[in-house]
Amino acid sequence: MNETVKEKVYSEAEIAERLEKELPKWRYENGWIRRKYKTHSWKSTLMVINTVGHLAEAAWHHPD
For residue 50, what are the CA distances in angstroms to 3, 10, 18, 56? Predict the structure, then answer.
């Protein structure tokens, strides 16, 4: 029993619409889903980067 399940591929308009509704601080740009973060200092920036890196490693995913 080998069934192939097709995953839905969203159009750019669908991506933008879902982001607006579900993740309003995120945007779709040049094939990437992005968000900017602003921190108050170099130390807090480093803490955010290390946290993202830790979570990515735990999920076996390495973001660009």
Answer: 40, 31, 28, 10
